[in-house]
């Protein structure tokens, strides 16, 4: 059975942390100290479960007057099942429901097209974050593509 839900606190750190470690640290070589931060303690997290196994995650933080998506990750052998789309849409929905006019993501360039398919628009020039090239992207309720991938 597939289940997607919001998680917080210790549960979020345990379930989401293992996915993020595998994807960002082991697969992409991001330093574990950069991957985890104090935002994890108060972020809105989403986790997708296949039975008892956590397979996808992401988070939403509100910082500097910006609703920011981040740490979107799907385990390698579970990609292509639209879990990333589900995670992003749940986080966008949460942001709009708590007052966001727009939502931002710093997307890795390799997945810019994925975010564009949801309705995100690139802003500015690419930049490096954790040694990986990213692009700032935003979405508002009018830009959101209603159909899931």
TrEMBL record:
The keyword Glycosyltransferase does not apply. Residues 2-142 form the N-acetyltransferase domain. Signal peptide: none annotated. Pfam families: Acetyltransf_10. Keywords: Transferase. One of its GO terms (molecular function) is glucosamine 6-phosphate N-acetyltransferase activity. This is GNAT family N-acetyltransferase.
């Amino acid at each position: 059975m597939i289940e997607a839900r919001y998680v917080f606190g210790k549960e979020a750190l345990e379930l989401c942390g293992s996915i993020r470690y595998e994807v960002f640290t082991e697969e992409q070589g991001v330093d574990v100290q950069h991957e985890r931060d104090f935002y994890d303690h108060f972020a809105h997290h989403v986790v997708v479960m296949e039975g008892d196994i956590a397979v996808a995650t992401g988070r939403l933080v509100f910082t500097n007057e910006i609703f920011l998506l981040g740490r979107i990750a799907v385990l390698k052998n579970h990609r292509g099942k639209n879990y990333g789309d589900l995670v992003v849409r749940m986080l966008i929905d949460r942001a709009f429901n708590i007052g966001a006019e727009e939502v931002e993501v710093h997307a890795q360039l390799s997945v810019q097209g994925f975010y564009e398919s949801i309705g995100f628009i690139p802003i500015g020039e690419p930049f490096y974050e954790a040694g990986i090239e990213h692009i700032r992207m935003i979405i508002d309720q009018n830009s959101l593509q209603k159909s899931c991938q």
